[in-house]
Amino acid sequence: MEILALGARPLRLDDVVAVARGTATVTLDDDALTRLHDARAHVEHLAHQDTPVYGVSTGFGALATRHIPPEQRAQLQRSLVRSHAAGSGPAVEREVVRAMMLLRLKTLASGHTGVRPEVAATLADLLSAGITPVVHEYGSLGCSGDLAPLAAVALALMGEGEVEGPGGRMPAAEALRATGIAPVELAEKEGLALINGTDGMLGMLALTIADLTGLLRVADVAAAMSVEALLGTDRVFAADLQALRPHPGQAASASNLRRLLDGSAIMASHRTPDCTRVQDAYSLRCAPQVAGAARDTLDHARLVAERELASSIDNPVLTGDGRVESNGNFHGAPVAYVLDFLAIPTADVASMSERRTDRFLDVARNAGLPPFLADDPGVDSGHMIAQYTAAGVVAELKRLAVPASVDSIPSSAMQEDHVSMGWSAGRKLRRAVDGLARVLAVEVLTAARALDLRAPLAPSPATAAARDLLRLTVPGPGPDRHLAPELEATAVAIRSGALLAAVEAVTGPLD
Questions:
Q1: Which residue among the candidates 54, 138, 282, 388 is catalytic per the annotation?
Q2: Are 372 and 384 in contact (CB under 8 A)?
Q3: Residue 138, beta-bridge partner list
Q4: What Enzyme Commission number(s) does the record list for this chain (predicted)?
């Protein structure tokens, strides 16, 4: 089993994905434990001073002017967590919650929050035991941290609320008892430190970066299959033409297309003097410009995510010289903006994919293929309604591309008068990424059928590998069949990485 030790080594995006989607054991190294011990000593010293310190001896938000006497400060932290665990709606995905837990633990381990070592260690124990607090869809405005989602995690540390454990959903107290984990009795500042971060939205960004990295390569595979089966040209993807507009993402996508189409007998069959087509439609010719711009957007999002991973987000925060200072680093704008930004190319790559699917089905544009790729047009409808499905998803993706971060609803009696809505941006982006995978599945399935219909001409080795992988679960051309399971099987092959792996076994790693 993989062991991830937090402390001396910086946390990477790959670490977040591995823990969120796997079963890694998470521990705190000696550096982290030393920082936690030293920071806690400063907080306990301040807790005994007469000067009010936000989060230690005061109320929260608009109630920060209320001084809390020492005998009520433990109750203050418990009350904070219970009241802020006010989420509603369906439970969010396990991987999102685990990513959020790891990222909060990363900030605790930085020594800038002032929690006791045992609080951080208990959060690590929950991750290692596979105990995932139930976090609800609604409750974060993406400012003052992802409050309700993180409070649900903190509640589980206290042995309250519900969790998903190895035995299914159960009370947190029962899951902790079964795994031998002692509930935490929160002390000064600890409740606040557990809930005041951008960890939910950052976790969703990390997972999305991983997913889109693969899906954009699949988009190139789908485009290559379509260019080939629609008798398009690969000359427009030449390196010298692409270099005239030196965007790195565009160069990478065009390079992929050249490698994917290399050795195609279908392409060679119409490279003759009697070919009358001088240029292809935009959805074929401009594929690297669109997929490339999406890559460059993803690279920007990755830069923001890496900066956020290097951050310690809490309010108030413990500085290196022992001060406890209020700040605004919990505001989710940097993450919210890129979550919204990524929804735009996600929708546009899907939109171009759907346009290529539609070309296959129209006899006026599909270069001699049967109407709708049907076996017996009229009796059979072929992939007619598969295109409807893709179009319906694309329409939804365009709605999901409307930014959440331009909205703000003031809260906490106008103390929190501007919020980021970054959690909402993350939630809609996850839906959009799932939609992109489904639209690409329609194109790949349709293009594979078209490649078969070009027989006896053979596709390139790379696109043949994609087609042949599908044929393990999805039959080739023939009379109409129940299409939904075939679309789902193709989507599974895309999301699992199986389709890309089959192609890269021929081409080597794509860019």
A1: 54
A2: yes
A3: 88
A4: 4.3.1.3
Q: What are phi and psi of 314, to 5 degrees?
A: -160, 160
Tokens of 170: 């159960």
Of 416, 318, 329, 311, give the one whose Cα is nearest residue 53. Answer: 318
The token duo for 94 is: 């396990």
Residue 324 DSSP one-character state? E
pLDDT value for 1 = 60
Residue 199 to residues 63, 93, 350, 422, 475: CA-CA distances in angstroms?
24, 14, 28, 11, 44
Farthest CA pair distance, the chain: 91
Give SS3 for 273: coil
How many other C-beta atoms can be found within 10 angstroms of the C-beta atom of residue 98?
26
Alpha-carbon gap, residue 154 to 234, rounded angstroms:
55
Instruction: List pLDDT tens digits, range 177-201.
Output: 999 999 999 998 899 999 999 999 9
CB atoms within 10 A of CB 378: 8
Q: Which of 384, 376, 375, 360 is nearest to 477 (CA)?
A: 375
Cα gap 57→46, rounded to integer Å: 9
**Rg of the chain in Å (alpha carbons):** 26
Dihedral sign from CA coordinates of 445, 449, 454, 456: positive
Instruction: Provide the token pair at 237.
Output: 């993807």
Supply the DSSP string of 242-284, one letter for each residue. Answer: HTTS--HHHHHHHHHHHHHHTT-HHHHHT-STT-------HHH
Alpha-carbon distance 205 to 436, whole Å? 16
How high is the pLDDT of residue 431?
Answer: 98
pTM of the model: 0.95
Residue ranges and CATH numbers for the domains of the chain are 3-197 (1.10.275.10), 204-309+343-507 (1.20.200.10)
Half-sphere exposure of 480 (CA within 13 A, CB side): 14
Residue 282 bears catalytic tag: no
C-alpha span between 37 and 425 (Å, rounded): 36
CA-nearest of 114, 298, 280 to 217 is 298
Q: Half-sphere exposure of 57 toward its Cβ, with a 13 Å CA cutoff?
A: 15
- Encode pLDDT of 54-90 as tens digits: 777 777 666 667 777 777 878 888 999 999 999 999 9
d(Cα 256, Cα 220) in Å, to the nearest integer?
7
Instruction: Give first-to-last CA distance, the chain, whole Å.
Output: 30
